[in-house]
Specification:
Low-confidence stretches of chain B: none
Distance between the termini of chain B: 31 Å
Structural class of chain B: mainly alpha
Keywords (chain A): DNA damage, DNA repair, DNA-binding, Nucleus
Number of helices of chain B: 5
Strand content of chain A: under 5%
Pfam families (chain A): CENP-X
Number of helices of chain A: 3
Mean pLDDT of chain B: 88
Radius of gyration of chain A: 16 Å
Subcellular location (chain A): Nucleus
Number of domains of chain B: 2
Strand content of chain B: under 5%
Largest interface: A-B, 58 and 61 residues
Order of helices and strands of chain B: HEHEHHH
Shape of chain A: elongated
Order of helices and strands of chain A: HEHEH
Helix content of chain B: over 70%
Structural class of chain A: mainly alpha
Largest sheet of chain A: none
Oligomer: heterodimer
Number of strands of chain A: 2
Helix content of chain A: 55-70%
CATH architecture of the largest domain in chain B: Orthogonal Bundle
InterPro entries (chain A): CENP-X, Histone-fold
Family (chain A): Belongs to the CENP-X/MHF2 family.
Mean pLDDT of chain A: 92
């Protein structure tokens, strides 16, 4: 992974609030370290989606990454996570 | 109450959308290809829905371990499906542990509250 974009990622409280809003029970909490790790997971997920869609566009000789490229890589992406 | 909840959810989605946009921009710059707005929106939506699945899994894992707090151990289980990702997350987790040990060494004497520690790390 490139060094230069290492700092682009999700904020810890964003991830913490997002995950907490999806918990079924109110008493479930998320520890600080778990939130940081999940932020990393989501960053990898988003980056993987972007890189795979870009590769698909490349293989079809397109200058722009369009929705059909993302549609093609989506099923495998979801199976990998 | 539910209107309030809805608004928070929209704001969280917007935050995810913003970060996904920036990630797509860097990926695009590296390969001289731009991402359509539709793709960025779709990736953001997918990330939010995947978070829903992650959250439910994390909650179930924590409950299975008879805890009500989700810990890094649960996150490691969530990442189990892909070997590379699982190893990556385990390394990250160890890195965090080391960082915390270093912070504790530095802070002996003047104890900071946990909140300020976390803010300074971001």
């Amino acid at each position: 992974m490139a060094e230069s974009d290492a700092e682009i990622g999700f904020r810890k409280d964003t991830v913490s609030k997002l995950l907490s809003s999806f918990f079924k029970e109110d008493k479930t909490r998320l520890s600080g370290d778990a939130a940081l790790l999940m932020a990393e997971m989501l960053r990898v997920f988003a980056r993987e989606a972007a890189v795979r869609a870009q590769k698909q566009a490349e293989s079809e000789d397109c200058d722009r990454v369009d929705i059909e490229h993302f549609e093609k890589i989506l099923p495998q992406l979801l199976l990998d996570f | 109450m539910s209107v309030d909840k809805d608004e928070t959810h929209q704001r969280l989605k917007a935050a995810v959308h913003y970060t996904v946009g920036r990630i797509c921009q860097t990926v695009g710059e590296d390969h001289r290809r731009e991402f359509s707005r539709q793709v960025i929106a779709a990736i953001a939506e997918t990330a939010v829905r995947q978070s829903d699945i992650f959250a439910k899994d994390l909650e179930a894992f924590a409950r299975h371990a008879k805890r009500s707090t989700v810990t890094p151990e649960d996150v490691k289980l969530v990442a189990r499906r892909s070997t590379a990702l699982s190893i990556y997350i385990q390394n990250k987790s160890e890195e965090l542990n080391h960082e915390q040990r270093d912070l504790k060494k530095k802070n002996t004497g003047k104890r900071k509250s946990r909140d300020t520690d976390e803010e300074s790390r971001e």
